[in-house]
Amino acid sequence: MRKHHAMQLLTKLATAAALCAILVAPSLAQAAKDLLTIDAPNDAATLDPQLQWDTDSYGVYRNIFDNLVTRDGTGTIVPQIATAWRNIDDTHVVFDLRSDVTFQDGTPLTADDVVFSIKRITNPALNSAQLSQFDQIIDATAESPTRVLLTTKAPYPVLLAQLVKLSIVPKAYVERVGNQEFNVRPIGSGPYRVREWQKGVQVVLDANATYWRGTPPFKTVIFRAVPDVSTRIADLKSGRADLIRLMPPDEAVALKSNAALTVLTVPTERVGYMFINAQAGVTADPKVRKAIAYGIDKQGIIDALLQGFGKPVGSIGAEPIFGYLPDIAGYPYDPAKARALIKEAGAEGKELTFLTSPAYDRRIVEAIQQMVNDIGLKVNITMLDQASFLRRRQGTPNDAGNLAIGVWSCACQDADGIIFPLFRTGSSWSKYSNAAFDTAVDAARSTLDTGKRLANYRTAYDILREDVPGLGLYQSYAFYAARKELQWQPTPNEALFVMDMRWK
Amino acid sequence: MLRYALGRLLQSVVAVFGVLTIVFVVMRFAGDPTLLLMPEGASQEAIDALRHSLGFDRPILVQYLDYLGNLARLDFGVSVVQHIPVLDIVAARLPYTLELATGALLVAIGLGLPAGVAMAMGRGGWLESLLGTAVLAGQSMPTFLSGVLLIAVFGVWLGWLPTSGADDLSALVLPALCLGALSMSTFARVARIAMIDELGRDYVRAARARGMSRLSAVLRHVLRNAAIPVVTIAALEIGNLLAGSVIVETVFAWPGIGQLAIQSIQSRDFLIVQMIVLLTSVIYVLTSLLADVLYGVLDPRIRLAR
Prior knowledge:
Chain A is of the alpha+beta class and 504 residues long. Chain A is built from 16 helices and 19 strands.
């Protein structure tokens, strides 16, 4: 009997496996209109919005909390809890707050909560991953229930861009229940409240019916943790999920032929770049660095390896980033010129070390290796684990290798968060030193005058173009796929604001 | 028997202590996790502050003694990423892995044993070649492939079972099948060999000579004797199921400790990784201890030989 049963099952499995080769047709269940299910690669690490800010945690908790300011669809910083702000002097900013906002437990949101939120996240004892984004704020005081005064260490032009990421938490509730409880059962003033958090499985959110910006579009939103991309796609095809985050470009291309689904892509503020060590080995010679810049076929990498989902950039920056100047042209792909420069430098056949780790796209590393070999150098790839990679990359110039790639984002959409840490003398990432560059980026971060800042960044980017201590490759894209019925335009900062989504 | 069991227990304690030490050494010499935890562009002061608060700036011997002391008090620390005690995080995920391992073991035994017995009894016939092929397929197909295949067929195409998650028992079917397939093959092979071994023995011939049918000889005597190696394999397979669950849990979004291990490695949550490695090692040691003791209980030849 059992034998028979086993046989039957084996036969079934064999048939099923054979049929699997046939194109799998999606059987979309008619999902309830008031439920939205989102598949992300990971569960939220914390729901306390002041502890972690990885994309998956961020995606969930930004729907539970409000911020002082936010970015609209065009990327402009616009009011949210703050209605207006003005600089009193270079280091003091006053914010006027809305008076009609309440937390989900009914208590009103006041200046005390804003002050508490800032003091909490800047307290090193909290161990927030966002501490370095806010540690320029040295004081916050409530001048009235609807007015807050912030003091910065020095003139801090990136303040507003950073405040986009500061969630306002309820002082009374946090103080009453403590940090650990708040992390598990948070209360915010945002469009959704936490119904249930099954750790590692899903977060279930209910609409906040009294939300000040209007009624949220779905009664219930579920964020599920589904680590494997093919499983997320299967969830979408079978109707178990309505929206999925993150897929490799090949999968995005494959899904485009599916009539029931739509692939959503958006250029982000993440920049694919290459580091070129200006202080050690054969790349210490600027001619060699220039030759490498001429030898890299950016468009080729984008077309062949990113399936066209990427935009070549002239410098290390991208459109959504303040200070990025699209008119500063990059080096054109010119292998003949590159070879000539290598010959001129007498560097033919010299060896280079390309440091990398499994965190970086191996195919791009190998493509660049091939391109640099083609201009007359010899590239050796050194594969390390991520911890060793970072230790060497941020260590002494002699130990940092000649080349490395990365995808950089400061999540602040400002050049100060990119070229300052990458190339300023003394920064652990920098294997380059140029006094004129240092002066320009120092000046750009210590004035609030946007015109002066832009002029300084123009100087800085011009110097980088001449010295090539690094090379901008492409602007990275974010990928989502959703049921056709979902109306949503993803944004460059990769926020998953459910308030911006609708059923068609 | 008692001396035998105590001797094995002592060996296990030494093995666990060895694992504790290896884990410590590997975690400390693989590199300092501080840099991994900091955002890009963080200042040197911030990095140093975090290194100090994690205790990585202390002498290595002090760190080791501290580590052993904490483990002795069952204090596994607080996750540096999730800000929740590591013990709570792992404890919340462990039941899922146990559920999956149980389901997989049921699949493996329920399908593997009958297949093995059938192969032994139908030796040389078409049934053996057919089942042999299935067993080989079950063993050689990697779970990340069979998992995706099962999801595509039963989840997306037929729509019978959920494509992912752990909502109810129906969600357990596919991952248990996927994970169980590996062990199923082991059970089938071991059962087949043990059966063939026993079927050729004198007592079977004697039973047949007494007029007993082949089937009742198998049911009354052979199965019981053939069970000895199968039971010990079952204990050892529990360890393999836990190890195999890393991939299966990831493919099926099953929230057990295998998936947690992968996520924690990705998010550099080293204290969770450390606890999972310790836990898995201890389970391995305990199950092989169990296997040895069971072997002694079932087979007097083993315990008397010592």
